[in-house]
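Quick one - inputs below.
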Amino acid sequence: EADIYQTPRYLVIGTGKKITLECSQTMGHDKMYWYQQDPGMELHLIHYSYGVNSTEKGDLSSESTVSRIRTEHFPLTLESARPSHTSQYLCASSGGQGGSPLHFGNGTRLTVT
Amino acid sequence: AQSVTQLGSHVSVSEGALVLLRCNYSSSVPPYLFWYVQYPNQGLQLLLKYTTGATLVKGINGFEAEFKKSETSFHLTKPSAHMSDAAEYFCAVRMDSSYKLIFGSGTRLLVRP
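Output:
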């Protein structure tokens, strides 16, 4: 079973607040990812990292930012939350070569009121 | 650019019937292909993957998928549906040159008693 943890599981917050979604993995994977999942299920890559001090924007534009100071930790931050940020955020990690699968956390469901 | 198309946002089968979930991809190079399952309020769990070698791959929970290069397809099947198979299913593709995973829009499988 993959060991990747996301906190909080659920977050309801008011507009304008700063939030950080936490993601940690204990597998020593060098690659980590953030996906945004719409209510209709589709997943979109918003950030990824191939190692410490490496971060890239994904295919879907996002106002969030990420950091990768430690291998095991890949937090996502929204400086000023808006209702349009309401979504589910899924963190994942992978190691090895291109055939290695992604291991997902259970997600954070964010609601901005 | 690579993309993944899942035909049918909803598929409904009777318990004990064949499950067939369709996935077609576009990629200019041989891809790595994955199927994931998502249960309510959870992250994604790997069902199976194709990297190289045998084109018929077996996964967990009795699922299997066949890579057909000529048809650019990777359909997921299970001979006999069980109530516990009701979930969201995602097909995903990764090109060799990138570690990013591109997901299809998902198919919701409903299993009728």
